[in-house]
Amino acid sequence: MLSRKFWELESDHYDVEKTFLTEEEQLCERLFAETTHREESRRYIVSLPFRTSDPKCKYGDSKQIAQKRFLILEKRFLRDPDMKKEYIKAINEYLDLGHEEKVETKEKADAVYLPHHAVVRNDKLTTKLRVVFDASCPGTICVVADIIKMYRQVKVSKRDGDFQRILWRENPEDQLQHFRLLRMTFGTSSAPYLRTILQRWFTNSTELLNHKQEDHLRATEEHLELIKQVSIPRLELYALAWLRSHSSRWKTFIANRVSDILTVLDEDQWCHVSTKQNPADCASRGANPSVRPEVKIWKQGPAFLKHINIDYKREVMDTTMEERKLKCHTTTSNKTESSILNKYSTSTRLTRVVAYCMFLSPNFGRLWKAGVKSTKHHLRRIVGNSTLTFEEMTTLLAQIEACLNSRPISQLPTYPDDPYPLTPGHFLIGEPLVVVPDRNYEDSNVSSLKRWHLTQRMLQDFWRRWSQEYLTQLQHRYKWTDQVSEPKVGDVVLIREDDLPPAKWLFGVIDKKHTGLDNLTRVVSVRCKDSVIKRPLSKLVILPVT
């Protein structure tokens, strides 16, 4: 009995029982109790807990959708035979393990079909391809996820198997075959609930069970060893202090108990009764029953409970006992930050830079807010559903930041022969920002790319989308501020090119104007480094002078 108490106390599944359940939760609990059972091998068999007896997913167009998605998958197989080989291997594994079966009676009006596709992770050492079943597709069950073997240890009742049908064939020449999944599908809306209910630990080995309980008992004894020298009244005050702070402040053992207690009662409902007024302390002090005052407290409780209004002064106490230790790393640098006054050779250039800074954020910051919105929009589109590690995301964001801070703002009249304009990078490091060049991965197959190449593909995709949008806005913006009828020879221009690498802009100086019969200039010659090219004005952005 004692070992069981310690087991329950230290168990990861220790929790406060929820007193009130919603009608839907009560229905779910009742369905689980009535339909869940075990077969002879002790394996669980569960039913899918639908909200109604006539689920809406039966009436979706799931079969046609699944068939269309499978035909797309077959086209991918033609381009990647190795992936097809691994996919066939994965499907056959389901059949060999008895986790799915072929459906002989194909036509069933209320059957639900799940589309499926492959997720390839070449960075994995073992399983590089997983079959993913799409239960979020319109007309099906509602969540996207794959099947993993933890969930495949639980069977689904035969009556619910037709809610987990799939289409499959190894060769396009064969007829489509119908299969039904026989195990619980990870990702359906009911899977987390069923997993939680079934995740208790079971074994038919007495020796293994005893070892597990001994391990928990030993951990509990080590924990109690830390606080056994503290008196009970002192521990009671510590408990109040623990309850009056957020559970995240304390170590795991205390934090879990504080969190459980505060889900039932608020911290201001807990008070401390001193030793002299606490009936429970009579026995702990070894009081003689013949002592009348002690017996009175034991029978009737403390006197202040009899008052209509209890005048109680709460103990104010804080403690660091069982407090979670936080690690803080600091770095110091002996490098002296250079002043902006030292970055520019003349006071005239410094004045123009500062003046331009004051000129930015017009219309109450609408321009820079629009820039932030545009960046977030393109970032969401390029990352999508991809999962990046912290290092990969940090690298990608740093490269995107360099692209953003490389954008041209205006031309500097101090150096007319130098076509490089002023950029935000000049304010940050005193010169333009650059990104290490790499080959173009935009046309490469995502599944064949390594992790580094994948992040570079995202960077190139972001650069192409964002730079085109920025140049379009730049052309329109300067049309708003200045009505320039004709470009001038010597103007610094930004040339719109589609194939430039990230953070690379093509600048030039107008060398010659080509006037048409109507005396209007639509084409100019631009000198870029050692060459001269012709471009229409629609491909040029004339930068203003600061």
Could you list some keywords that capture this structure?
flat; 3-stranded mixed sheet; HIV Type 1 Reverse Transcriptase, Chain A, domain 1; 546 residues; single chain; alpha+beta; 5-stranded antiparallel sheet
Based on helices, strands and strand pairing, what is the structural class?
Answer: alpha+beta
Largest sheet: 5 strands, antiparallel
| Residue share in β-strands | 5-15%
Helical element count? 15
Helical residues, percent: 25-40%
- Listing every helix as H and every strand as E from the N terminus to the C terminus, the arrangement reads HHEEHHEEEEEEEHHHHHHHHHHHEEEEE
* Overall shape: flat
Q: What are the low-pLDDT stretches, counting only 5+ consecutive residues below 50?
A: 12-16, 140-148
Distance between the termini: 84 Å
Q: Measured on Cα atoms, how large is the radius of gyration?
A: 36 Å
Strand order of the largest sheet: 13-12-11-10-14
Mean pLDDT: 76
Number of strands: 14
